[in-house]
Amino acid sequence: MSLSYPTALRSSMAGSLRVEDAGDRVRLVGWVHRRRDLGGLVFVDLRDRSGRVQLSFGPDWTPAEVLERAGRLRAEDVIAVEGEVVARPAANVNPELPTGEIEVHVIGLEVLAEAETPPIPVATPPGEELPAEELRLRYRYLDLRREELQRAFAVRHRAMQIVRSYLSAEGFWEVETPMLTRRTPEGARDYLVPSRVHPGEFYALPQSPQLYKQLLMVSGFDRYFQIARCLRDEDLRADRQPEFTQIDAELSFVTEEDIFRVGEGMIAALWREILGVELATPFPRLTYREAMERYGTDKPDLRFGMEFQDVTDLLREAEFRLFQETRGTAVRIKGIRAPGGGAALSRKELDELAAVARAAGAAGALWVRRTDEGLAGQFAKALDEGLTERFIAATGLEPGDLFVVVIGHYRVLSLVDESHLGATEDVYHVGGAEAALDALRRHLGDRLGLRDPGVHRWAWITEFPLFDWDIEAKRLVAAHHPFTMPHPDDLPTLLRYTEEGALDLAMARALFQEGIRARAYDAVYNGSEMASGSIRIHDPALQRRVFRALGIGEREAEEKFGFLLEAFRYGAPPHGGFAFGVDRLIMLLVGAASLRDVIAFPKTTAARALFEGAPAPVGPAELRDLHIAVVNDQGVDERSGA
Known about the structure:
The chain is an alpha+beta fold. Helix 4 packs across helix 6 (256-275).
């Protein structure tokens, strides 16, 4: 007999009963999922966390008063029953339920709590449209009763146990770091917490445990991990939460390869134990520059090919105005070959490609397809016979294939002079053309069925840029974070520019143009970023050089990061780490459509908790205790009028 988690009120979990338990007397508790009355017989589906089982109330085995009480049960009533497990006749077996071979003949029933009619249904048949998400979030405690969500949280629990077990076996210690921290100058906005005992001073809620885990390495902990809660006051996005969870880890005396081995071993354990999928390790490695040149993105979907091809020199020879206008400029013509795309896609679908490119920031897209007679499409007639043959040979086009091009800037790390286009200043291109061609690649991958959800392709993207360029502020900013170690081959360049004093605008621009690489890396899965990390700076002198490049002077560095620089003076080991996003990992493992399906109490896209009404106003007395006033645009206290 199943004895899963017995208590004083139950002998078994409802969903744990099987045909082997037939003949056993059981006590069960849970919620009424559904009730059906069939002329003297009452059937109730009883639900608890483990699943559902059918209860059967009948005059041959159920006392009359119990049968009568069963007929009054309502959905979501909480009940306790006692009865006998009975095997169902073969004709009545329900193959859709793990408990479908048995039912419980009830002899005793107690209503532990009556339920009003729920404002949202809990028992929703497969395929039935759910209520609006905002309504489900308003009654989240009811929505969480749905079996789909409970299965997701069972997977989340199991996944975290696998992570803890794996990292513990690798010698990591689980250490908690503070939630009340000092605000950091980089990254997203911090959530600030006013101090009651220190008027005018504020804590920040952690965006990540970054500095603490580095200090733990200085402390000699060697290997640390944490299932860390992080908070960022970011601008609202459809599927991003202000608070999230990450698997945070840091290791001492390591290189990137040591970190990759641990990280991909942990992921392989999750995929093996939860999905039954054996991932091939080690994961492929691509440098940032390789990824951008081949796929136009730092998170390429490697389930299919369609790598970028540069056809600039070929197509500039064509009698086609848009191609000829690129002559003598930095503008390039790149494209992708979609095998079979020319034959598979309709003319309407081909014409949609320009709209896909425009939505991603380009002026549009052009296409040709190869037929048995040659090329057909938007620029096919501009290619003479010889150029057509060379184009086909260069691109590898076979009959039925499609080739799509996007014209634009493909310089990723550059400040491009566009004065000839009427721009008053240099414009920093983050790869507008790359983004458009990447969007087309993904779009065609979907249309041609190449993005198979049953295929799992992980990769490490390495050697990210150390610096990014802030167009508005006209200064360097950290592309990852300011504690990332520069690539050793680029270190002499960084040292040359930061020898002394702050960098002026010209020097900062020149340093950016150098394209200094960082020892930073991301883990990418099927076209989505799942983790990031880096080897950290452990030399205080080098850290000050990086601060200097970022416009952080000595005084500001001491004020904001003095504790870290001081710790480094007493011997810091080489160290690095990673952080995997838990919510996105679980979303993938359970096949959920939204992050909110794997977070117990998520916020809306407006960052509100509807079920509890947060955030909410605070009264004047509490604000006075915190030395805070709420003022309007004119600086007037809205509560007191002062």
